[in-house]
Amino acid sequence: MTGPELKQLRQDLGDALGRPLSAADMAKLCGLTGGAGADTIRKWEVTGPSGPAGALLRILAMASDRYPILENFNVFDRFNIAEKQRPARREAFREQMRAEVRRRLD
């Protein structure tokens, strides 16, 4: 994930949650505590996040409809799920991801 992609992700997650996210909010999502967390996010919005944080953010990005559900989370396109049920199940999954993002922000 590049810096501009992280900046776009902040906006997209904010849109998915119905409120803008600050750099401090993104720091909470990444588990960065203390006053330096927001500064770290602002640096990453230029340089890109480091390894584990980038992986975590790719997972949390699934809360937004603008990002694909990652293959290892996508159990909806398998043969044992009826095609007409798949869109509702995908949306329920995205809502679970939004709830997880909200939980991490509280």
What does this structure look like?
The chain has helices at 3-17, 23-29, 36-47, 51-60, 86-105. It is built from five helices and no strands. The protein has 106 residues and is mainly alpha-helical. The mean pLDDT is 91.
SSE diagram, text form:
Layout: H1 3-17, H2 23-29, H3 36-47, H4 51-60, H5 86-105
Cα gyration radius (Å): 15 Å
Sheet of most strands: none
Q: What class would the helix/strand composition place it in?
A: mainly alpha
Question: What order do the SSEs take from the amino end to the carboxyl end, as H and E?
Answer: HHHHH
User: pLDDT under 50 segments (min length 5)?
Assistant: none
Task: Give the N-terminus to C-terminus distance in angstroms.
Answer: 25 Å
**Would you tell me the overall average pLDDT?**
91
| Count of helical regions | 5
Helix content: 55-70%
State the oligomer: single chain
Please state roughly what percent of the residues sit in beta strands, choosing from under 5%, 5-15%, 15-25%, 25-35%, 35-45% or over 45%. Answer: under 5%
Quick rundown:
The chain is an all-alpha fold and 106 residues long. It has helices at residues 3-17, 23-29, 36-47, 51-60, 86-105.
Q: Characteristics of this structure?
A:
single chain; 106 residues; mainly alpha; 5 helices; elongated
